[in-house]
Design the sequence.
């Protein structure tokens, strides 16, 4: 095969050079088109693994805070995780604000964790190994700081859901949320 | 190779059988290839593998079938990421794919239309083999492996159609699995074993999903054997005569790679019509109704590619005989290399067979029409005649024609025939016009 | 292979296709379906959002009394032109079953955009009891599930007439020109001006039937427009690619020919 092509090339001589360039251009552009088409065709197969529309529809949740009295706590669900919503009493707010921030394992001021002082919104998943801390129900243990207590390994959170004792390294996470109305929040 | 040694190998044998030339490819590829000769294998099979230079476009369908297999596997795997194989959720999961999964509608259409495209390609590929005698010595095993692939495809497609769990899925599965009860003595036990219960149900659906996922990889393995057998003696060609040297052949790459890619573009155009526009053309409306074991659809019809065999099944009133006839219609293909008594391969040089060969697809179209219609009146009569012709064709006509027809004289070589066609000269004792 | 043989094959296939079609129509004993004009018909068709909204209104105010559309979510209605706020309002009109709550009971709450549109009955058995044993089919896929698609839906809705003389109508059924067997359990659902369209279109029976058929086509084929749009680009690309590959093929093969 190689020698046939070789001899053909030799017999064609000079004119073949221009022909070769033309052939190369055609072959290269054909190859490029093929690769381009292949990459474009690949995208749906990759994108199908991204969250589907029904999952995205649950990407944000609205929670009505109206029924939650002062001192009460509500558990909402957002993206498959529990969200602790606490309507804080004046005492709880005062306790949260008076803690020296530098002494905290994960230093954060209370003001940086809330949008309105009387509402605390945090994801109810312990930052140690992922259990759901107790403290939402009226008869749950809340730990010595009046916040939340994780039964799995004893992490203790305060009224701003910051870690005070126990193995958890970080405060309970604050999800992205906003007040669309005075008593309505949209999480996510 | 010796240059890259570091003195820790014995100097004796440093020439592996199919190694890359020292000039081409970078060092990394040469390092890998010396230990796992994958690249040199591919290069050898595509550039050193002599392919007859006179192959026409009917030879594109083999590579198209291989590409369809890959498309079906990839689209099937991504669909399986979202499909739920339980009676309660199967239908809904397919709807979720169509509506909510990103590009889910596209993946589903590719897979559903792809099944039909796969069969179209394979039926044409098969007919090419029939017409040009590709099943004859020394390619009998190549042919038989192809029939095995066809059988595996049919099993895969049958189980795949059950998965959406529509009315036609459920009742088609019921009808076809019930056929096995025709087997004497143990038939009903086999059916119960297949079902995993007393009717088609959840266990049946689950196992069909597992097997539907498995079989395509078995097909891949058989296709591998098919290609090994092919490369042993190389492709047949429209003249049916063996190639005698480099003047008769061209390297597969780039000649047939570019021709196959062009054919692929045309094929994808037709495929796209079904994916994007004529989506419902091949889909039975009853399969958009969730399976209901209490309600039988008025007409239970399989997908078009099974219609001729469905017709053969229904052509005789006796259940066992019908089942036997249906399976025999495929099994008869295995014996074709020995049924055909002609010493000449290509129908080009066989004046009688050349015409009779076309009667087979016409007969299959007639059988397909019979299968699509309720078995009443003239449909039944035509079905019986067409079934009789099908077996007559293979068991009587092909052996007799081979014996009694006078074939035209064959050309001396492929190269000669190509040259003659180019120069329009017709020397004595030569072939007809190309 | 002889061109003649191949042409004969194609002709046979076309004949068969035609034969299958006519055989099915004759056998069901119904007249051919009316050939309506649909905005989404043909290769470049698109949905008419105004018609879809009117159709949704007809579904909501008439059909939803008996027929569910369980594969539709409220949030899908953004595709037919409603805003997120409008959809929140529509969803909130419905009571959706949720639960169990902490006491272990199922409870009802106002619908949200992420909910399925709830059907009129909790299950098939309740539906049958309320409808004299008949089961009103789910409409989310009805256009795909019937031969003739939107033409069929339109025909059924406008095809209620008096039975011809001598036709014995089973009690509890109604005569319909286009329903196979002519005896349908559904009473004629549409009457003139039954619905007051928000955009002021007169609510004649053909208008309502047309709009609800369009809405149900969208419900069955929500991605039709994307299909056509992407399909056009794909086929254009393939035509160009075919041309380039053909030229490359000719170039490479010129060494041999």
Sequence:
């Amino acid at each position: 095969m190689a020698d046939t092509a070789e001899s053909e090339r030799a017999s064609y001589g000079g004119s073949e050079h221009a022909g070769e360039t033309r052939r190369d251009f055609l072959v290269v552009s054909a190859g490029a088109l093929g690769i381009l088409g292949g990459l474009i065709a690949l995208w749906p197969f990759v994108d199908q693994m991204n969250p589907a529309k029904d999952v995205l529809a649950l990407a944000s949740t609205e929670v009505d805070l109206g029924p939650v009295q002062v001192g009460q706590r509500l558990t909402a669900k957002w993206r498959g995780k529990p969200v602790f919503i606490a309507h804080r009493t004046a005492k709880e707010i005062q306790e949260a604000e008076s803690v020296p921030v530098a002494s905290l394992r994960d230093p954060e001021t209370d003001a940086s964790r809330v949008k309105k002082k009387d509402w605390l919104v945090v994801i109810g998943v312990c930052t140690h190994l992922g259990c759901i801390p107790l403290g939402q129900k009226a008869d749950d243990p809340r730990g010595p700081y009046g916040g939340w207590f994780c039964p799995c390994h004893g992490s203790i959170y305060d009224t701003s859901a910051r870690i005070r004792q126990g193995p958890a390294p970080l405060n309970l996470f604050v999800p992205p949320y906003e007040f669309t109305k005075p008593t309505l929040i949209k999480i996510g | 190779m010796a240059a890259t040694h570091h003195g820790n190998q014995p100097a004796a044998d440093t020439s592996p059988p199919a190694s890359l030339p020292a000039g081409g490819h970078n060092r990394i590829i040469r390092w890998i290839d010396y230990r796992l000769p994958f690249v040199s294998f591919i290069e050898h099979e595509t550039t050193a593998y002599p392919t007859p230079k006179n192959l026409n476009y009917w030879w594109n369908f083999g590579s198209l079938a291989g590409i369809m297999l890959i498309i079906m596997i990839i689209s099937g795997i991504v669909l399986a990421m979202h499909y739920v194989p339980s009676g309660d959720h199967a239908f809904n999961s397919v709807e979720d794919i169509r509506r909510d999964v990103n590009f889910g509608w596209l993946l589903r259409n590719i897979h559903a239309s792809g099944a039909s495209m796969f069969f179209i390609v394979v039926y044409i590929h098969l007919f090419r083999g029939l017409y040009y005698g590709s099943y004859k010595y020394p390619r009998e095993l190549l042919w038989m492996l192809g029939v095995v692939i066809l059988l595996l495809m049919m099993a895969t497609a049958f189980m795949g159609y059950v998965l959406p769990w529509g009315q036609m899925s459920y009742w088609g599965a019921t009808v076809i699995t019930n056929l096995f009860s025709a087997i004497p003595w143990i038939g009903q036990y086999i059916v119960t074993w297949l079902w995993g219960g007393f009717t088609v149900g959840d266990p049946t659906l689950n196992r069909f999903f597992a097997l539907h996922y498995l079989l395509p990889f078995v097909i891949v393995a058989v296709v591998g054997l098919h290609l090994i057998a092919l490369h042993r003696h190389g492709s047949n060609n429209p003249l049916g005569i063996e190639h005698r040297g480099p003047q008769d052949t061209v390297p597969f790459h780039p000649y047939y790679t570019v021709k196959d890619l062009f054919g692929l573009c045309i094929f994808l155009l037709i495929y796209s019509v079904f994916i994007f526009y004529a989506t419902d053309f091949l889909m039975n409306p009853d399969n958009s109704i969730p399976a209901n074991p209490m309600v039988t659809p008025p007409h239970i019809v399989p997908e078009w590619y099974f219609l001729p065999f469905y017709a053969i099944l229904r052509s005789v009133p006796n259940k066992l005989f019908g089942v036997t006839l249906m399976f025999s219609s495929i099994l008869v293909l295995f014996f074709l290399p020995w049924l055909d008594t002609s010493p000449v391969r290509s129908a080009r040089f066989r004046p009688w067979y050349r015409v009779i060969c076309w009667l087979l697809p016409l007969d299959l179209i007639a059988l397909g029409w019979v299968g699509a219609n309720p078995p009443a009146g003239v449909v039944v009569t035509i079905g019986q005649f067409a079934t009789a012709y099908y077996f007559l064709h293979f068991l009587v006509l092909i052996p007799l024609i081979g014996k009694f027809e006078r074939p035209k004289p064959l050309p001396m070589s492929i190269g000669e025939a190509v040259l003659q066609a180019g120069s329009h000269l017709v020397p004595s004792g030569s072939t007809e016009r190309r | 292979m002889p061109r003649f043989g191949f042409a004969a094959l194609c002709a046979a296939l076309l004949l068969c296709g035609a034969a299958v079609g006519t055989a099915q129509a004759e056998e069901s004993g119904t007249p051919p379906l009316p050939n309506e004009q649909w905005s989404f018909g043909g290769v470049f068709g698109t949905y008419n959002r105004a018609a879809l909204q009117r159709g949704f209104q007809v579904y909501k105010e008439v059909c939803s009394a008996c027929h569910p559309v369980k594969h539709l979510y409220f949030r899908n209605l953004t595709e037919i032109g409603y805003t997120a706020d409008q959809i929140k309002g529509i969803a909130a009109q419905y009571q959706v079953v949720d639960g169990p709550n902490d006491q272990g009971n199922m409870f009802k709450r106002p619908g949200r955009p992420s909910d399925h549109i709830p059907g009129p009955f909790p299950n098939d058995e309740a539906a049958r009891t309320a409808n004299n044993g008949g089961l009103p089919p789910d409409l989310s896929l009805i256009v795909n599930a019937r031969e003739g698609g939107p033409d069929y839906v339109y025909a059924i809705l406008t095809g209620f007439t008096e039975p011809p003389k001598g036709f014995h109508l089973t009690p509890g059924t109604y005569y319909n020109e286009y329903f196979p067997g002519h005896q349908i359990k559904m009473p004629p659902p549409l009457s003139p001006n039954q619905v007051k369209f928000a955009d002021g279109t007169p609510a004649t029976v053909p208008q309502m039937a047309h709009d609800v058929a369009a809405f149900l086509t969208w419900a069955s084929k929500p991605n039709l427009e994307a299909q056509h749009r992407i399909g056009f680009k794909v086929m254009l690309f393939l035509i160009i690619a075919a041309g380039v590959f053909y030229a490359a093929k000719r170039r490479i093969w010129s060494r041999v020919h």
About this structure: Confidence is low (pLDDT under 50) at residues 1-16 of chain A. The first strand of chain A starts at residue 61 and ends at 64. Chain A has four helices and nine strands.
